[in-house]
Amino acid sequence: MYEGAKTRVRTVGGDSEHFPVVMGLHQGSALSPFLFALVMDGLTRQIQGEVPWCMLFADDIVLIDETRSGVNAKLEDWRQTLESKGFKLSRTKTEYLECKFSEAPQEAGLEVRLGTQVIQKKSSFKYLGSIMQGSGEIDDDVTHRIGAGWMKWRLASGVLCDKKVPPQLKGKFYKVVVRPTMLYGAECWPVKVSHVQKMKVAEMRMLRWMCGHTRSDRIRNEDIRDKVGVASVEDKMREARLRWFGHVKRRDTDAPVRRCERLAMDGFRRGRGRPKKYWGEVIRHDMAQLQLTEDMTLDRRVWRTHIRVEG
């Protein structure tokens, strides 16, 4: 609802009559997303699937199925349900992504449609700030996060490049403003050496610029980090991964995040060459590096003490 909107509301689960609402919410009101999510949940409760086959965040909806015909059926259910209540699904913003593990003969040539309109197929799409690729890789997401970090750095360059500001204060500002933007979603990345190297190169360019140095000055990276009091981005990425891993392991086995952890695709065939690197493999390497065990995740204080990286 927007300012000046007129609608009629009925209390959920109540017996009161409809009453008019002549004043909507102001744009940007904190109640807007809450009320929208409440209404969406009430309207679609009968057609919602289980996580991760159906994921909702306000008006961003993800529907997952193993076949295109199944996707078409879900889209039609959602279209009919929402349009019968006065909502309208955007034909231009609806996209679909295909992760091809196996293809049934009857699916060949079948198009994904929303009503009569063919839905555009994408090789990647953005959901909640992260870039999802059909290939299962994270290259686009890493590049996107580095670009977002540079954007924040440029906005704060008036402070970060000011010679009158002490280096330690610049480092604190960087850790609060820039680095969290670069590491958004990094706790779930199955990172490779090339991804870590790209993040380290981007961070060191920022830190050197903050200190007024270039690579031609031949100052070691460790000396730059000590000057601004910033730990390596590689260590902070490992800390974020292990923190999320401990959070997952402390949840009940029936929690949605634990079900996603056990998710397996039927009919998956590994192609030629080296297999893809998975998140669990990265976590096992991190735990071996710090000499940690899964039992330690049950005690949150002990776990965070062992994985914490200063800076």
Overall spatial form? globular
What percent of residues are in strands? Answer: 5-15%
Unreliable spans are 1-13
How many strand units?
10
Mean pLDDT rating: 84
Strand order of the largest sheet: 1-2
Major sheet summary line: 2 strands, antiparallel
Order of helices and strands: EEHEEHEEEEEEHHHHHHHHHH
The Cα radius of gyration reads: 24 Å
How much helix, percentage-wise, in residues? 40-55%
Annotation field: number of helices: 12
Report on this structure.
This protein is mainly alpha-helical. The protein has 12 helices and 10 strands. It has helices at 31-44, 68-83, 139-155, 157-160, 167-177, 179-182, 193-211, 221-228, 233-249, 256-261, 279-290, 300-307, and strands spanning 7-9, 19-21, 54-57, 60-63, 95-97, 113-114, 117-118, 120-122, 124-127, 130-133. The strands form 5 sheets. The protein has a two-stranded antiparallel ribbon with strand order 1-2. Strands 3-4 form a two-stranded antiparallel sheet. It has a two-stranded parallel sheet with strand order 5-8. Strand 9 (124-127) and strand 10 form a beta hairpin. Helix 7 packs across helix 8. The longest helix is centred in the middle third of the chain and has 19 residues, at 193-211. The two termini are 44 Å apart. Mean pLDDT is 84; it is low at 1-13.
